[in-house]
Amino acid sequence: MEETKRKKVLVIGVIGADVHAVGNKILYHAFTEAGFEVVNLGVMVSQEEYIAAAIESNADAIVISSLYGQGELDCRGMREKCDEAGLKGIPLLVGGNIVIGKQSFEDVEKRFKAMGFDRVFPPGTPPETTIEALHELLDGKE
Amino acid sequence: MKPVLLIDFGSTYTKVTAVDVEGEAILGTAASYTTIETDINNGLNNALAELEKKCGKLTFTETYACSSAAGGLRMVTSGLVPELTSEAARLASLGAGAKVIKVYSFQLTEDDLDEIRSIKPDIFLLVGGTDGGNTECIVHNAKMLATLSPEFPIVIAGNRTAARECQRILSGCTVYICDNVMPKFGVLNIEPTQKQIRDIFLKRIIQAKGLSHAAALLDDIMMPTPSAVLQAMNLLAQGCEGESGIGDLIAVDVGGATTDVYSIADGMPRQMNTVYKGLPEPFSKRTVEGDIGMRYSIRGIVEAAGIDAVAALSGLSKDRVKELVDYLAVHTDVVPGDDDELEALDYALASLAIETAVSRHAGTIEETYTMMGKTFVQSGKNLTEVKQVIVTGGSLIHTKRTAQIASHAMFDPAKPSSLRPMGAEIRVDRSYIIAAMGLLSAHYPQTALRIMKKELENDGYTEQAHS
Predict the structure, then answer these.
(1) Which chain B residues are Cβ-neighbours of A6 within 8 angstroms?
(2) Architecture of domain A9-136
């Protein structure tokens, strides 16, 4: 019998009181197409929901989207909660319109990295870029 | 005439129902005390003698039974995350007719093991992890359980990747492997586990509980009573070939110690601007409120609803309510009879028991404001469009105010977040035939359905709660 390799599992969703559903569906299809097992939590996802889903599915990474400008507030404390829940070191990726107003992306990226995010993506990032980053983070890891 | 005998070995009463499956009619019902300590057949024979007095000598062609005697089917479960696989395990067990004594989440501890040892469950349900997901927790829990050298059977229904490993760890114990109760995130698959639980109940638990004397008399079926009730309600709602059902429904059984609620309905969001959160719930859902009952759990009703509500509904003073509640908690066999004060109190208690139990069973909705405008977040079942409510239990049968009490199951504008029915027909099971019809439905679904439609008396239409 052919031994199939376990697919890498991603938990994705749109955080906070954010109902932008289209990008979420695009990401779901793009990640699935790229060979990932995707647990899609949809819109209006709380930090706790990402964590609960990641624990049950033994996820390899959590990909958070935020389109309505409140992402910084919604994402605060996520890394600490993951640590607390036993998901130590799980890659956290975030992207979309994660902050409001005209800010340089370098500053935004710096702030999110300080919050414990491994990768931060600016508005308009194509799914391929995120997929590439996921391969960098996850390939070769067991 | 073709008489069939249906028996319900209850914790207190053994109830017998004789049905003529050719004439599609109830021939008679009778009850006597359950005699589990001596020989279960004594109580059964007493009930049958009672039945014979009412309808003469009958020769039964078939006999079926269900049982909740000797503590019912007592289960303990363990899962991983409380609101995910642990909840799936709880829903699976309740739907199989079990009494869920304890639900553990995450890794079992030594203290938990002590507790499990003293609970001595009839069955342990071990789950955790989606398929291909977490294996660490279920494997750890299997190792912990193995140290107990348990005599109770263990059903493994977690991450399929870990199933065989758990079985090896528990070698020497009685182990059954089932499909995962939550194979993918947010997907429930509880039927295989429920089938396994019923199977174990039939093969093992009946003997262990001294019911096997009676089992010798029976043709094929023996199931936990709540499981028979759930089957009857499924049939009543959905119908069968050749006979239509009455549609989505809620059933409430207000007992002395617990209140059971059943809903047969999809309950998913109705509007586009509603987002569903949490585990989707089973189409046929059962919950049990262990703290809500008319006598043994009378204090639980007062605690949940508040003494002010009891006083207001009954028209009695708070002090008098306290006195009577203290009295009834000890004198559990007292019924109101012609006592107006007790009648008023029981009216209030039954109303609040229904309100509390149905509110806990039904889903909730919250309004939130987003950049895109008003949005609703629903969790649990939306039962607002359910049009049929079936009620049973002494406090609802022996009263003239059945529909008024049942109206407390309805949507309440003062508590708009609770998704209870907007308006419904109320039907009463006056002669306690529901469990019997569940048993009959296995071989005579059409007959069972037609008898229920006839016998479950319509008590009128009611809209939202009035206090």
Answers:
(1) 132
(2) 3-Layer(aba) Sandwich (3.40)
